[in-house]
UniProtKB/TrEMBL annotation:
N6-carboxylysine found at: K143
Highest taxon, organism lineage: Bacteria
Protein's UniProt name: Phosphotriesterase-related protein
Family that this chain belongs to: Belongs to the metallo-dependent hydrolases superfamily. Phosphotriesterase family.
Matching SUPFAM superfamilies: Metallo-dependent hydrolases (SSF51556)
Pfam family membership, one: PTE
Keywords: Hydrolase, Metal-binding
Amino acid sequence: MATVQTVKGPIDSSELGRTLVHEHVFVLGEEYRLNYEDWDEDQKVADAIRDLNDLKAAGIDTIFDPTVLGLGRYIPRIQKVAAQTDLNIVVATGLYTYNDVPHQFEHRGPGLLFDQPEPLVEMFLKDINEGIADTGVKAAFLKCVIEEPGLTPGVERVMRAVGQTSSQTGAPVTVHTNPHTRSGLVAQKVLGEEGVDPAKIVLGHSGDSDDIDYLSELAENGSLLGMDRFGLDVYLSTEKRVDTIVELVRRGYVEKITLAHDASCFIDYFDPKAKAEVQPNWNFRHIPEDVLPMLLEKGVSEDDIDTMLVKNPRRYFE
């Protein structure tokens, strides 16, 4: 057992229950929102409460929310939502970039114009050990990214800072990867060089690929596979995602699989109505209502589903 920090405070890992390991409550550019968005705070919070309560009613107990710097993390808004739902929300620290670090870090750090210890590590440690800003909410895990551009200097700097923080605190890591460039292998290598246990790594968006050999290699290396974009058929259809999991389970990797949608209560990347029309299944209900029955129909057992939804997310922290 282990203590897991949630938005409403610490719980025992045994209380996580059925967990979706990669979901967002809000994804938005705060600077854009403040200047251009027609934003009704009370309504957006009410919508999020409704969505998460619906998810709880559908049998999901916890979401991990890897909304970090670069994705619009604003914990006071998340606290408003968490106060009115029984669903656990577990938040992260880290930095989301495909290329460069933000200008706030461009000139500060080891060997830079202002030569000092890595400020990213200092920031991540504070979020985990003391809390995020003055909210009292502690981050429970770390998030970094390696996308199609690959291991750029900025991406590597963030990834190594995440790895160093994980090694110092024991906090697990989620990595946004691009499986079509096999970047999960790069993430395993770099984080491993910083002393991160591969079992403490979820390689996010692995489910965008049905390359079984690649996914098996990641699992053999010890990490968890984030089969976490159900409903985003633009990347891979639900049927192919399900078939990939079925084959991975058949090969003995059920203890390496986690599930999610990478969905959100609100995201400002798209017009909400257009998003619903183009990707109608990209919502929190898709896994409990559609995916789990499909897995069972194709021979995955209830115990396997319990492993993917309960045991693996719990072990991520234990």
